Amino acid sequence: MGIKAIVSILLMVSLCAATFVTQGVAQMQTPPMIPGLFPIGLPIDLVKCWSSLFNVEGCVLEISKSIFSGKFENVEAACCKAFSALDANCWPQMFPLNPFFPPLLKNNCARIVPNSPTHN
User: Which keywords has UniProt assigned to this entry (predicted)?
Assistant: First the structure.
């Protein structure tokens, strides 16, 4: 074997080792913690996000129908009030496949319930 072949093999082995070590170190790192609390950056509690909608009778069904049909006229005022009161940080977790839906529904709810804030 020539010097070039040995250097090439040595270079390839060192690159593979560096790649695997980097991946292993990344998996071993833990997220920063506040003592006695959850890790920083923990996702929004989906139960808390959905609970206000489940408290209004038929609201989740109305929203589901509007997601699939694209029609917002069946969403009632009580459901609009509950949806408008949701924290905007809940939306990406509640509607991960359609990020445009929450602002559309909120803008429509602003027409149904005049005092509800529009999405900024």
Answer: Signal
- The amino acid sitting at 118 is T
Indicate the residue type of 34.
I
pTM over 0.70: no
- The conformation of residue 2, written as its DSSP 8-state character, comes to -
- Compute φ and ψ for 33, nearest 5 degrees: -125, 145
Computed on alpha carbons and rounded to an integer, the radius of gyration of the chain in Å comes to 25
What gap in Å lies between CA 101 and CA 8, rounded to an integer?
Answer: 54
DSSP assignment string, 22-90: HHHHHHH----B-TTSPBTTPPP-HHHHHHHHHTSTTHHHHHHHHHHH---TT--HHHHHHHHTS-TTT
Instruction: Tell me the β-bridge partners of 39.
Output: 33
Lowest mean pLDDT across 21-25, 72-76, 80-84: 21-25
Rounded distance, CA 78 to CA 18, Å?
58
Residues near 78 by beta carbon (within 8 Å), at least 6 away in sequence: 56, 59
